[in-house]
Amino acid sequence: MIDLIILVTLLALGYGFGSYAESRHYKSIIARENRLRHIPAVTSRFPQMNNNSRDAELVSGSVVISVDYFKRFIAALRNLVGGRVTSYESLVDRARREAILRMKAQAEQLNADIVFNVKLETSSIHKGRGNSIGSVEVLAYGTALKTQQ
Amino acid sequence: MLVTNIEILPDKRIVEHLGLVQGSSVRAKHVGRDIMAGLKNIFGGELKGYTELLQESRAEAMERMIEQAEAVGANAVLNVRFSTSSVAAGAAELFAYGTAVVLE
């Protein structure tokens, strides 16, 4: 009985704080994405060979994000029947966008105009109980260049 | 020391290729951070302690790579890549590698 109460409390805490944190995070992501739109991050490997491009420098951004208890519970249920695990989809989406934003913020500090050859790397660094994924780390890196005179 | 992850630089010419240079660092998380992370696993959100830890160890891996590049007489490292792997429970290896070159 006491186990059930603990479980329900954890689920409620996870649901409450988790969805609040997620919606706040998304709001801040969208605001910063709009602000940093003037620095495009592209995956092409070769910059244009005109003489204006200069001051190449490696920039990177990384973030570790964890899912809440409620979402992990839902994902565990989803494991029984299979299908899309939407609760983890939003986790990696948030992590990737946040990592790219941090990379762009670093490029902005260097007064760069564009970030070339962006690569994303995702790894699960912390295993939760059982074999459920606790959290993911995303690293985004690329080369910042100045292209204007 | 110039470090980038593109293969050619628009404003500089490569004089000499000196081969692969690499650096790595293996870190374990400490207990305090683990407890905080345990709490965050209930509420969800960013694990700032881990983010910092991984950033520090990645910076160290890069530093070691740059040291190696300096030792072979390079003045730039091009086409740098990062890779992460967990070698043991609770420890992660951060690995950086690239091509050491001499730019004019």
Characterise this structure:
The complex is a heterodimer of chains A (149) and B (104). By secondary structure, chain A is an alpha+beta fold. In chain A, 48% of the residues lie in helices and 28% in strands. Chain A starts with a helix and ends with a strand. Chain B has a single domain (2-28, 57-103), classed as Translation Initiation Factor IF3 (2-Layer Sandwich). Chain B is built from two helices and five strands. Chain B has helices at residues 31-43, 48-71; strands spanning 2-3, 14-28, 45-46, 76-88, 91-103. Chain B is elongated and about 55 Å long. The mean pLDDT of chain B is 84. Classes of the chains: A alpha+beta (149), B alpha+beta (104). The A-B interface holds A 10, 13-14, 17-18, 21-22, 25, 45-51, 53-54, 56-58, 60, 62-69, 71-72, 98, 116-117, 119, 121, 123, 125-128, 134-135, 137, 139, 141-143, 145 and B 2-11, 37, 40-47, 50-51, 54-55, 58, 80-86, 89, 92. Strand 1 (54-66) of chain A pairs antiparallel with strand 3 (45-46) of chain B, so a sheet runs across the interface. Chain B: Pfam families: YbjQ_1 (PF01906). Chain B: It comes from Candidatus Thiodiazotropha taylori. Chain B: InterPro entries: UPF0145_dom_sf, UPF0145_YbjQ-like.
Most residues in contact: chain pair: A-B, 49 and 33 residues
Write the CATH fold name of chain A: Translation Initiation Factor IF3
Class by SSE composition of chain B:
alpha+beta
Radius of gyration of chain A: 19 Å
Mean of residue pLDDT values of chain A: 85
Helix content of chain A: 40-55%
Helix/strand-derived category of chain A reads alpha+beta
CATH A-level architecture of chain B: 2-Layer Sandwich
Oligomer type: heterodimer
Overall CATH class of chain B: Alpha Beta
CATH superfamily of chain A: Hypothetical protein apc22750. Chain B
H/E element sequence of chain B: EEHEHEE
In percent, how helical is the residue content of chain B? 25-40%
Indicate the proportion of strand residues of chain A: 25-35%
Radius of gyration of chain B: 17 Å
Compute the separation of the termini of chain A in Å: 70 Å
Strand content of chain B: 35-45%
